[in-house]
Each structure stands twice: as structure tokens, then as C-alpha cells.
Design goal:
Layout: H1 5-27, H2 38-41, H3 46-63, H4 71-100, H5 104-114, H6 120-126, H7 129-155
Length: about 160
């Protein structure tokens, strides 16, 4: 467990960041009055999500690998975080759906139908906790692995050359 304690810590930070982001979306009205802009604004969660991965990799490099880290070591760190984030995604989505913003799905359905983007039946099939949980279970590993592959490039660090004396 000690080997992955840093990844567990950053998984929990990632989940907390996600919940805080969605609370802020709700408070800014993107789940109600400004729901027409939600599909744009919600994509900006990528910025803090990537930042969490960067800080996690730097933390792992400093505290576990003694200041150096290969690409593969970083990649493995990200894979573990991604796995745990994916496992937690149904819980975080359910917290959002039932606690933070239970009005989101009805509002999204109403908006999709009123703009002609979807029929009532299609909107109800799309905007619900079960579908969002499934999308999270598919999206989290894809986005996590892409983020991992890129962040591992920028957080790797070779060891300092030693004097051969």
C-alpha cells in the first residue's frame, strides 16, 4: 500500500477537485439559468484535471523516486491514478447527481427538448445518472491515459551525473 499511497492521495484530490468544480458550475448557473453554455464551460475542467496529474507526478518523483523519474515510472503512476479515478467515478457522479445538483438532469432535458436538439425520449435516455455513470466509466480511462501519456513526458527527470572518483 505504501508503494501507491501517493497515487491514492492524488486520486482523492482529483475526486475532490471534480466535486468542487461541479459545485462552482452550479453556483454560476451552468446547471440552470445558463445551461445553454454548460457544454462549453464544463470542458474547462480539463485545466485543473491536468494540473492535478502534473502535481501528482511531481509529488511521486520527489517523494518516492528521490527527484528522478523515468517516463515509464511516471506513466505507471498515472495509470494507477486513472484506475482509481475510474473506480471512484460512479460514486462522484452519483454525489453530483443526487446531492450537489439534482436539478441538472431535468434542466438539461428541458433545454435539449426546447431547442429541438433531442426528443423528450432521447433527452431522458441521455440525461440521467445511469448514462452519466457509464460515460464516466468509459471516459475516465481514455482521458486519464491520454493525460498520463503526455504529462509523463514533461515530468520525467534523469538523475544527476555522478563523479567517477
Amino acid at each position: 500500500m505504501k508503494k501507491i499511497s501517493i497515487e491514492i492521495k492524488w486520486t482523492l484530490i482529483f475526486a475532490a477537485m471534480t466535486l468542487v468544480w461541479l459545485v462552482l458550475e452550479k453556483l454560476a448557473g451552468f446547471h440552470s439559468a445558463h445551461i445553454d453554455k454548460h457544454h462549453i464551460v464544463t470542458n474547462f475542467i480539463a485545466i485543473p484535471a491536468i494540473a492535478v496529474y502534473v502535481f501528482a507526478f511531481l509529488d511521486k518523483r520527489k517523494k518516492y523516486y528521490g527527484g528522478t523519474m523515468t517516463y515509464m515510472q511516471g506513466f505507471l503512476c498515472g495509470v494507477i491514478i486513472t484506475l482509481f479515478v475510474t473506480i471512484l467515478s460512479p460514486l462522484t457522479q452519483s454525489i453530483v447527481s443526487y446531492v450537489i445538483t439534482p436539478e441538472y438532469f431535468p434542466n438539461a432535458i428541458k433545454h435539449a427538448v426546447s431547442t429541438g436538439a433531442m426528443t423528450q425520449q432521447d433527452a431522458e435516455s441521455y440525461f440521467n445518472n445511469s448514462n452519466y455513470v457509464m460515460m464516466g466509466l468509459m471516459g475516465a480511462p481514455v482521458m486519464g491515459l491520454i493525460t498520463t501519456a503526455v504529462v509523463a513526458i514533461f515530468t520525467r527527470k534523469k538523475g544527476e551525473p555522478r563523479n567517477a572518483a
